[in-house]
Design a protein that fits this description.
- There is one protein chain.
- The chain has 3 helices and 18 strands.
- The protein is mainly beta.
- It has a 9-stranded mixed β-sheet.
- A hairpin with a 3-residue loop joins strand 10 and strand 11.
- The protein is globular and about 60 Å long.
- The chain starts with 10 loop residues before the first strand and ends with a strand.
Amino acid sequence: MGFMKSATVDWQVESPFSPRHVPVRVDGFAETTGTSPMKFAAPLTPGRLIRRYKRFLSDMRLDTGEEITAHCANPGAMLGLLKEGNRVWLSKSDKPGRKLPWSWEVVETDFGRGPEYVGINTSHPNAIVAEAIAAGFFPEFAGYDKLRREVKYGQNSRVDILLEGEGLPPHYVEIKNVHMMRKPGLAEFPDSVTARGAKHLRELAEMVEQGHRATMVYLIQMQADAFTLAADIDPAYAAAFRDATARGVEALAVCCEATPEGVEIARRVPVAI
């Protein structure tokens, strides 16, 4: 039983196991007491990448030979993922009236250690992390029994997840999708300048100074050995990160096993800054 759904793809969760924490109550959803790999609700359709353009559009050639335009739910530069001919997998929405029924979900690429799958859809990480919190995967969040999504805070911002629990300070959790790897095994963020990301770091630091807790979660939608910041791409974000962590913002990173069947958090990886 799952408790989060993305805007474009429905998820189903198979074989729940016993949790290691108190159940988390998620506003608008039934109480959840377990987790497992998050599976795509329907088999993805394979194809090849032709091109990605205008940030959110991508032309694909399906294995049937049909050429389609798919929604690319990823605003980043997607460095290393956009080679023409790369193997891709797509979901298809049956929602009536949707302009682009196809969505790009997974790409196969080689970062230097052989072909591997990478999840590129940035609308999924919040649900994946929420499910992992409910399963007790993160000891940092132990004891919190209520989870809310997209809660207003700071200056016209919404935090990805707000955790609340009796006798505990509110815990603000911001999640970033990671899909760049320029050195084998080393995942990096960001892959383009993100003024919005730096703003979130400053606002999280302000929450800590008000007596709350705040954590950055970097969800790596591929296998990785470690995580670091791409300071050469966005030095302002790197500076904001150093300032925020010095003021008490916590940071952690997890890598995933991404396949055409689903996306599963595999393990924690060190944050090497």
